[in-house]
Amino acid sequence: MVAFESGTNTGDALAFEHSPETDQHFENALAKARDGTRLTVADAIELLTTGSGTDGIDRERKEQVLEAADHRRAELVGREVTFVANLNNNVTTACNTGCLFCNFKDRSDQFLESSDADHDGFTKTPTQSREIVADAVERGIYEVTSVSGLHPAFALDDDHREILEASDRGDLNYRSPSAYEVDPGTYVEQIEAMSVDGVHVHSMTPEEAAHARRGTAWSYEEVYRRLADAGLDSAPGTAAEILVDEVRDVICPGKIDSDGWLEAMEAAATVGLDITATIMYGHVENEAHRAIHLDRVRELQDRTDAITEFIPLSFVHQNTPLYDYGMVEGGPTVQEDELMIAVSRLFLDNVDHIQASWVKYGDQQGLKLLNSGADDFMGTILSEEITKRAGGGFGEYRSFDQYVELIESIGRIPVERSTDYRTRRRIDGDPPHGPTLGPKADGTPLIE
Ligand code: SF4
User: What stretch of H or E contains 399?
Assistant: First the structure.
């Protein structure tokens, strides 16, 4: 565990081994970025800091980095801006992991039948999940995304439940579902329930996969294969946070380490699932950690070729323990957001799509990011609890008409996509616009 001395967002007060200093020069790194030479970690640090030898971000240099990234985006994926018709169906907020950047979770003992605690968390049964997804499929979604807290009653399947019930280990974060007001079922039951009419199921982060094998000797491959058999189509790489253990030890000591995350993602790819990757930045880490993270993701993609998109997630500090305890004073600056997107595009030469999340950045800044290296504008998100509960204020749903208007306002081409980007449809003609790629989508807007 790294010692923390309060009062900074930069990690200066933390005894980190990695610091954002290099022998490289900004101009050299920029020249390499412009001509498409594979960048090193030192290059990335120079670009993220606009020169590690000077204080603060140099505006002129920053614009040069953004321009290089925008140019690379245009070369690689052209003018199209993609988005997917999706639903977020998060199953439960019950979680004891205690990540300091998270306000999505609620301590699970509040969910016990015996508890009279007043909380606004939730758990859904598989039947409830199915109803919610079935309704959204009828409306026309292509994908359901599901990321949940690590509810102690969750087991992978009935075999796993038996193992957990029989165990006398006290360190497995397990409790029988009968102790809770609502039984979330097993992961397999939830995936089967959400797999309605062939809708794409995007779920089971590495952290959830680790929870789904706790107390067993099962490999991640066995877990993801079982989930794929139940209807899982792809796995989100959220829970990556920062893939450097000295940062994870501060912000999420209860989570699997960097190698565990990489092992799980590689296993998902091995059983044939597409995966995504994220970075959550702008809390206690520094630019060296961001650059190392990008390097680890690029190496993973070299090995798997299964990462469909990279998603930089700007830390939303309100209502999080990191902020409440005074460990950070806020999230990243707008300049840091822009550079994170741009350097992701320039560094990840083997990942085609970089996403700007309108939930995290808002519309205006999201559009700027689409001109700084990003080419994907996320999804419609019929319901989005995670960002709202952490204090994000950018709404919960984006209609196709809103998408078309925003994307065309910057002279780009709106394109509805499948989760894996392999199916795409350019949107033109007069509104109203609606999805056409989902199992029951017929062009009618998702919400009238
Ligand atoms: S980030 Fe996930 S694992 Fe960590 S506390 Fe929040 S819900 Fe739990």
Answer: none
Q: Residue type at 223?
A: V
- The Å distance, Cα 97 to ligand 1 centre, comes to 6
* Structural domain span for residue 336: 74-426
Q: Is residue 44 part of a domain?
A: no
Cα–Cα distances in angstroms (integers) from residue 385 to residues 29, 90, 389, in the given order: 40, 8, 6
Q: Could you report the per-residue pLDDT of 356-393, keeping only the tens digit for each?
A: 988 888 889 999 999 999 999 999 887 644 444 555 55
CA of 50 to the centre of ligand 1 (A): 33
pLDDT at res. 7: 36
Ligand 1 atom with the shortest distance to the CA of 93: 7
Pocket of ligand 1 (CB under 6 A): 95, 97-99, 102, 104-105, 149-150, 207, 252
Per residue in 7-34, pLDDT (tens digit) is 345 455 678 999 999 999 999 999 999 9
> With 0-12 CB in 10 A as exposed, 13-18 as middle and 19+ as buried, what is 429?
exposed
* Nearest Cα residue to atom 2 of ligand 1: 149
* Count of domains observed in the chain: 1
Asked if residue 42 belongs to a domain, the reply is no
User: CB 140: neighbour CB atoms within 10 A?
Assistant: 23
Q: What is the pLDDT of residues 219-230, one digit of tens each?
A: 999 999 999 999
Per the domain annotation, does 21 fall within a domain?
no
Contact 231, 191 (CB under 8 A): yes
Report the alpha-carbon distance of residue 67 to residue 228 in Å, rounded: 41
Residue 183 lies in a domain: yes
Segment 317-326, tens digit of pLDDT: 999 999 999 9
Distance in Å, CA 422 to ligand 1 centroid: 31
Which domain CATH number covers 161?
A: 3.20.20.70
CA separation for the pair 24, 52 (Å, rounded)? 9
Contact between residue 441 and residue 141 where contact means Cβ atoms under 8 Å apart: yes
Distance 174 CA to ligand 1 centre (A): 16
Q: Which residue, among 94, 102, 98, 145, has the nearest Cα to 124 in the 3D structure?
A: 94
